[in-house]
Structures are given as structure tokens and as C-alpha cells.
Amino acid sequence: MSVQDKTAGKRRGQALTGALAGVAVIAVLVAVFVGIKMSDDDEKQSAAATAPAAGAPAQPAPSAPPAQAPVDPALQKKPVVEAGSGDVTKLVVKQLIAGKGPKLAAGQTIRAHYVGVTYADGKQFDSSWDRGEPAEFPVGVGQLIKGWDQGLVGVPVGSRVQLDIPADLAYGENATGGRPAGDLRFVVDVLAAQ
Q: Do residues 49 and 135 both lie within one domain?
């Protein structure tokens, strides 16, 4: 191979490397442009979704923010829930920490942490704490066990309450589907409501 052939081969390699570098720079610039364009489109779509159309009737104001009370430091720690003693013949609501917020009304959606145990032996069967975040659900509208629907309405936001629930207001004496049978005890922290 002559010196000219080697020089020409070296130039072709350099030209190829330069071309690939140029293509890479263009690809990066296109990706940045597309990313910015998509971000702008998302913002425009978001603004369009929230803005009323021309001539459309005014939209109702957003719903009120959730009612919250100052959080007692004890509500930031999972409670220890022990077994009960004796028979549970009626729903018993015991306030463990008095909340300073408004009282819950039927139909409100609440955010709450809770621990549920079987009353007789204190064996835990459910806990929002173990899932790492509070649960949200409506109260007083028949979507929960009766003990919760009846026991939580009227409880102030910011409270920790203990609910001792007889079987007929829980899942029953012969519950199925992995639900606990018999009397239950829950400790519920009412964090917010709307």
C-alpha cells in the first residue's frame, strides 16, 4: 500500500468520524427541541383544559380545600393497639386524642391512618401505616363497615379515636374472603376531611 493510499484512507476515516459526530450533535439538538416543544404543548393543553371556552358559562369554583386541624405530634406515629376485654355489645367510640378541627359530617371524604385488630386477641389484620400512606374514603354513606360509618361521624378532624365494633357492625361472626370475623378494634387518626 502506498503512502498516498494510507493518507487517503486516514482522511476517509477522519471524514467518517466527523460526519458521525455531526449526526450525533444534530440528534441531540433535535431531541432537545422536541422535548421543549412537547413541554410547551403540555402547558398549552393544560391551560386550555382549565380555561373556559369562548361563550361558555362560567365554571363553578373548585371545591373547598380539605379541613385540617393542627396535627398532634402523636398522630405522626403508629399507635400500639391491644386486645380488648369482655364482650362488645354495642359500638364504643373512645377519644384518645381530641382534635381541634371541624366535626366530620356524613358524606365527607376523610383522609385517615388506622390500625385494625381482632378484639379478642389484638392480632392486627389491617393498617394504613404499613402501606406507608393514609387512606381516603367517604364516611356515613354506606361504603364502609357500619361501625366506621356510625362511629366516625361527629369526630373532630385531628382526633385519634378507638372504635370497639361488635361483629354485627363489622364483617359478621362468619366473615369470608380474608376478612376478620367477630368483634373488632380500630384506632383511627382523622387527618383531614372535605
A: no
Catalytic option among 110, 119, 145, 165: 145
96 and 188 co-located in one domain: yes
> Do 56 and 79 lie in a common domain?
no
Q: Tell me how many domains the chain contains.
A: 2
Residue 33 is among the residues annotated as catalytic for this protein: no
* Residue pair 188/136 in contact by the 8 Å Cβ criterion: no
Residues 29 and 83 in one domain: no
Given the residues 119, 165, 183, 186, the one annotated as active site: 186
pLDDT in tens, 78-120: 999 999 998 899 999 999 999 999 999 999 999 999 999 999 9
Q: What is the 3-state secondary structure (H, E, C) of 49-78?
A: HHCCCCCCCCCCCCCCCCEECCCCHHHHCC
Tell me which of 23 and 115 has the higher pLDDT.
Answer: 115
pTM for this entry:
0.65
